[in-house]
Each structure stands twice: as C-alpha cells, then as structure tokens.
Write the structure tokens for this entry.
Amino acid sequence: MSKLSIDELKAKAKELRTLIIDTTVWAGSGHYGGALSSADILTALYFRFLNIDPANPDWDDRDRFILSKGHSGIGFIPCLHLRGYFPVDELKNFNHFMSPFGMHPDCKKVKGCDASTGSLGHGLPMGVGMALGAKVLKKDFKTVVLLGDGECNEGSNYEAMMAASHYKLTNLIAIVDRNGFMIDGPTETVMGLEPFADKWEAFGWTVYECDGHNMQELCDTLDKAWANDTGKPVAIIAKTVKGKGVSFLEGDVRSHYGAFDSAQAEQAKQDIANM
Ligand SMILES: Cc1ncc(C[n+]2csc(CCOP(=O)(O)OP(=O)(O)O)c2C)c(N)n1
C-alpha cells in the first residue's frame, strides 16, 4: 500500500471514527472515549508508518504494534478492518458470542494483532521483549506501543522504561494517548503524572510532545521517531481529547464507556462528518 497523504489520512481518520460509532452500536456498548482520542494516532500508524502486510499477517519482518490500552479495541479492530485484514461483516459481530473480537484484542484470534492486551501495564514490557528480540536477531523492524495516560499509573511501565534504555532499544517507540482522563476522573486528580515528560527523560528516553489530533504534527513527530538517531528509545506524548469528534463526549469523563441510542449515534456521526 502506498503511504497516504496528510489529507487522505485526515479523511481516513474520519472514516475510522464513524466506524467506531457503528461498531459500538453493533456491539451494544464500548470504550468509545479512548478509541476516539487515539483514532488519529492509529490512522497515521496504519496508513503511513507501519511496515505490514495484511495478506501475510505473520510475516517475520513486519513492524509490531501493541495496543497496550487494550480496552480501546473498539478503535483498533475497526482500524485493522479498514487496513484490509478482514471484511466488515466480521466486524459487525464485535463482542458477540463466538466472535474473534472481544472487547479486548486477542492475538490468537485476531489477524494483525501482535499481542493480547486488556490488563493494563503489560504492553510496554511486551514491547521491550519484542524490540530486544529484534536487536538480538539483527532484524530491523520497529515495535510501537500505544499506552493510555491513566495506564501509566501501573508500576510495570517504569520497569519496562528502565529496561528499554538499559538495552538501548532505539527500535522501540512508545506513544501515550494523553487525553487527561482515566476511568474514574482526570489523571491529575486520581494519580498525578506531571511532570510526565521529565519522568520518561529521567528513565533515559528521548521524548517528543505533539498534538495527537494534528495529522501533520503527528506525522512529523513519527518521522523523527522512525529515523531515531538519538541512541535512546523514543516516547511520544500525544496530547488528545477523550471522545474527540463527538460534541457530547469531548473532554467528558463519562465518555470512557457506554452505549448509544439511535439518535446519539446519528448525532455522533453528524459531528464527525462536520469535523
Ligand atoms: C490492570 C488493570 N486495572 C484496571 C483496569 C480497568 N480499566 C480499564 S480502562 C481503565 C482506565 C484507563 O485509563 P487510560 O489508560 O487513560 O485510558 P483512556 O482514557 O485512554 O481510555 C481502567 C482502570 C484494567 N483494564 N487493567
């Protein structure tokens, strides 16, 4: 697939957001807030950066992606569909009995999924293992891990951050979806993360901050991360808005999880069309 232009990526992100609404309706409910906040990041990765082949999902040399914030599967699985891993009819069964797609992604069942996640705090440790494996095997694929900011309360992340810099994993990119909310409130009220960039730096990472909804800025930052010549692993703190694109969800802690009635789904899709 040729890499999409910035304008094409913006259009694709809208398509993904619309599909997140549809999938929530098909499933009956979902974690739409964090799925919508990370939609631009997923779109940039899957349609411009990741070296993958949907026809050959287990290709040894593919770039690896780990959705550490596994509850956002309702954003990730539709993205895999858009990238060509499986048809929309399968997506319509999201989180239904016998579907390969549960609310949290299972790499034994989902084509294109590199790690099973859902229990927060495990994606970065797994990513360290994959990146270290690539180094040992002298393979030049990248490993990208998408974390939630609330997820960064988990101590296992800090052990992984320490190991990543110890092993100089320049092939590892951590992206934090910094939407400022977790399940039960603002991150800074529940368990403050700031000064967040300083923490990653203190653990030996190169840190970039960007607007996670500005496609140009996001891609420029990912370009730097991909060309990493800093000798350190790279963390991107992408500032986002929970529920981005939907007027009655944006920046609202209640957007973490829920269901839409048909009027809300219609309104949500209208809002996304007008973005
Ligand atoms: C180990 C673990 N503890 C608790 C949960 C329940 N849980 C699901 S989502 C969530 C909040 C996560 O917040 P954040 O990482 O900021 O996600 P986002 O706001 O991007 O959706 C929690 C605590 C979990 N999935 N795993």
Notes: The CA atoms of residues 134 and 140 lie 7 Å apart.
